[in-house]
Design brief:
Order of helices and strands of chain B: HHEEEEEEEE
Low-confidence stretches of chain B: none
Low-confidence stretches of chain A: none
CATH superfamily of the largest domain in chain A: Thiolase/Chalcone synthase
Strand content of chain B: 35-45%
CATH architecture of the largest domain in chain A: 3-Layer(aba) Sandwich
Number of strands of chain A: 11
CATH class of one domain in chain B: Mainly Beta
CATH class of the largest domain in chain A: Alpha Beta
Structural class of chain A: alpha/beta
Oligomer: heterodimer
Strand order of the largest sheet of chain A: 3-2-4-7-1-8-11-10-9
Distance between the termini of chain A: 19 Å
CATH topology of the largest domain in chain A: Peroxisomal Thiolase, Chain A, domain 1
CATH architecture of one domain in chain B: Beta Barrel
Helix content of chain B: under 10%
Number of domains of chain A: 2
Strand content of chain A: 15-25%
Strand order of the largest sheet of chain B: 6-5-4-7-8
Distance between the termini of chain B: 38 Å
Structural class of chain B: mainly beta
Number of helices of chain B: 2
Helix content of chain A: 25-40%
Largest sheet of chain A: 9 strands, mixed
Largest interface: A-B, 38 and 36 residues
Shape of chain A: globular
Number of strands of chain B: 8
Largest sheet of chain B: 5 strands, antiparallel
Mean pLDDT of chain A: 97
Chain lengths: 384, 135
């Protein structure tokens, strides 16, 4: 690495059903806010993280589209896609570009617009994160694949569903104080377990919702940020890894190998251990991914991640506050933008701007972004 | 669904053809050029065993576009007798009767119709092995 890399501007829209706004309008709104927050009026490149614009809007070539609508004609721009993990991967690509010294300042904007289509169309589009020819052709859905994990986890470790289904309850509590969250209301464990089954044993209230949103970051080298007097947070570790794409082909269903691999690299780069992390953003597209991620990131032994949830160690007042603005479940999960929202939520904490949800003395935050059922995982570590 | 794509996949899908790695011995479905486990390129195509057991399963209650008529239906990871894993629907069984560990066997079934004038997809599903017929 030649340059220290910092995030010096954040911008984001509320997550929800934005009937009145197009994909490009959402992307521009978040981008302009991030540029304004950073104080930069120019960037050297744009990375647009998005998964499904081709399928849902029949629009690709988002790099040039967003550059055009930001009035940044001439600069390099492209889309970064790694399914639901696109956001974390875009941050990683921006990190590489700036740390190499080739670009001084780049804009990363994540955007997804899902409300333009019916649930069954979006369900099919989301399923393209898995193998279209040999898995999705059977009628398996993305929810269904995570349900396969869920059943195997409970059976292997003898865990009751209540111990895992509590995670969305904690997240909804956090989202109450997050103005940009999609769902700002409390739910109870009973609500979760009595909500309709989507794919047994996964209930509706254990699944992240569909929503529209955009979030953006201005990422720069430390020197530029100093010159510009930015309120900057450093990226001290950034790594990505892949796993065998299809869940069914993995010897151990319950370890997301790419999480283990990416986190080990990121910890090593940052020179820290899990105990040094003050807050976590895990990719809880489904409740079951929370305990598995806590284990694979090194916060619990294998088969014991659920204990951190049951004992509320992941709550704001717990030992390792997780998804402090509601996570994918309650803040929302606009697929390609989600990894960027994770960074936004962590930066609000690190800047001491998290309002009622502020975690005291938060200095180091870890972000885990998952594509597919762990086919891609990125881990980015931020430090104030 | 494009017709050429369906045509390309027909042998693998109809006959449950996989590949075995001559280096690490593992076999997998579908066949490919490089072993996903050890990276060896020394592979041979094999017809996979048609019997196995359920490793995990789910009931799809919110189906993707095209599968609405079949909902709710079962999806399972099945481990075949030689250890190869496949993902497929379970059929000829009540939703409440499925258990992890249940012995199942491959059977040739219809997957999906693409409208009144489109192609009809077929492939392998798994059904319980009926006691007394398990020879």
């Amino acid at each position: 690495m030649k340059e220290n890399v910092v995030i010096c501007g954040i911008g984001y829209t509320r997550i929800g059903e934005h009937w009145d706004k197009s994909l490009r309008e959402l992307a521009v709104e978040a981008s302009l806010k991030a540029l304004e927050d950073s104080g930069f009026d120019h960037v050297d490149a744009i990375y647009v993280s998005n998964m499904m614009s081709g399928m849902l809007q029949e629009q690709e070539h988002l790099g040039a589209l967003v550059a055009t609508y930001l009035g940044l004609r001439g600069i390099p721009a492209c889309k970064v896609e790694a399914a639901c993990g696109s956001g974390g991967m875009a941050i990683h690509q921006a990190f590489l570009a700036v740390s190499s010294g080739y670009y001084k300042t780049v804009l990363v904007v994540g955007v997804e617009k899902m409300s333009d289509r019916t649930t069954s169309e979006v369900t099919l589009a989301l399923a393209s994160a898995e193998d279209r020819e040999y898995v999705i052709s059977t009628g398996a859905t993305f929810v269904g694949l995570n349900a396969l994990l869920y059943r195997a986890y409970m059976l292997k470790y003898g865990v009751r569903q209540e111990s895992i289904a509590k995670f969305p309850v904690i997240e909804h509590e956090n989202a109450l104080n997050a103005p940009h969250a999609q769902f700002r209301r409390k739910i109870t464990l009973e609500d979760v377990l009595s909500s309709p089954l989507i794919a047994d044993p996964l209930h509706l209230l254990e699944c992240a919702p569909l929503g529209d949103g955009a979030a953006a970051l201005v990422i720069s080298c430390e020197e530029e940020a100093k010159n510009n007097k930015c309120d900057a947070v450093r990226i001290i570790g950034s790594a990505a890894a892949t796993d065998i794409l299809s869940l069914y082909e993995r010897e151990d269903l319950l370890t997301l190998y790419a999480t283990v691999k990416a986190s080990q690299k990121a910890y090593e780069m940052a020179g820290i251990k899990p105990k040094d992390v003050d807050l976590l953003e895990v990719h809880d597209a489904f409740s079951i991914l929370a305990p598995i991620s806590l284990e694979d990131l090194g916060f619990a032994k294998k088969g014991e991640g659920w204990k951190l949830i049951e004992k509320e160690e992941v709550a704001l007042s717990g030992r390792i506050p997780t998804n402090t603005m509601g996570g994918l479940k309650a803040r929302g999960h606009p697929i390609g933008a989600t990894g960027i929202y994770q960074a936004v939520d962590a930066i609000l904490q690190l800047r001491n701007d998290a309002g009622k949800n502020q975690v005291d003395n938060a200095s180091v935050a870890l972000l885990q972004s998952i594509g597919g059922v762990g086919g891609t995982v990125t881990v980015n570590i931020l430090k104030r | 669904m494009s017709v050429p794509r369906y045509w390309r996949e027909r042998v693998t899908k109809y006959r449950l053809i996989g590949a075995q790695c001559t280096n690490c011995g593992k076999s997998f479905y579908p066949p490919r050029k490089v072993c996903p486990y050890c990276g060896s390129r020394d592979l041979k195509e094999v017809a996979l065993p048609r019997k196995g057991k359920v490793i995990s399963f789910t009931v799809i209650r919110v189906p993707p576009a095209g599968f609405e008529l079949y909902s709710p239906y079962l999806i399972a990871i099945v481990e075949l007798e030689n250890g190869t894993r496949v993902l497929a629907q379970l059929t000829d069984v009540d939703l409440s009767e499925v258990k992890v560990g249940m012995p199942v066997e491959a059977t040739f079934r219809k997957y999906l119709e693409h409208g009144p004038s489109g192609i009809i997809e077929y492939g392998i599903k798994f059904r319980p092995v009926i006691k007394g017929e398990d020879k």
